[in-house]
């Protein structure tokens, strides 16, 4: 049984991203996966890494619980909106506070090389945005998503299985949101 963690990075529990979270969960459960979830908007933590790496901040219980879920997962699905071309501030704060040296990666002694602590796990991104997909990828070159994939996930050892865009949300045609939900259910059924 594959252990899947779904992380919803939208702060609003009533957002379309929550519907996508439920859709992926539904598909994965149908495929026999063991599913756990984190909704960042429900966590109680300070998203500000106040001292950088100079001084370690005590991790709140919700962050410690989230870390245990990340450690236990084999596949992590990140569902989030792109705001200003990148992750919501709450999601960025989640990574700043939790993906720390000693947790998600470690510096090798007397070396610039790192040990990727999340190696062996896979990850998928499901992004919603108002920008048309073609414009986001051709004009903006998917800068925020590429940075997240390479400078956070791959840096820590996660292998990316793919990125799914559902857009443009603002101008979606009737039935378009349901089409997105069906697409995400299918991803869940494939456990990817």
Automatic annotation (TrEMBL):
Checking InterPro entries in the record gives:
Flavodoxin_fold (IPR003680), Flavoprotein-like_sf (IPR029039), NAD(P)H_dehydrogenase_qn (IPR051545)
Q: Does the keyword Oxidoreductase apply?
A: yes
Q: What's a GO cellular component annotated to this UniProt protein?
A: cytosol
Provide the alphabetized UniProt keywords.
Oxidoreductase
GO MF annotations for this entry? NAD(P)H dehydrogenase (quinone) activity
The Flavodoxin-like fold domain is annotated at 2-179
Q: Which family does the UniProt entry place this protein in?
A: Belongs to the NAD(P)H dehydrogenase (quinone) family.
Name of the protein in its database record: NAD(P)H-dependent oxidoreductase
User: What organism does the UniProt record list as the source?
Assistant: Chitinophaga fulva
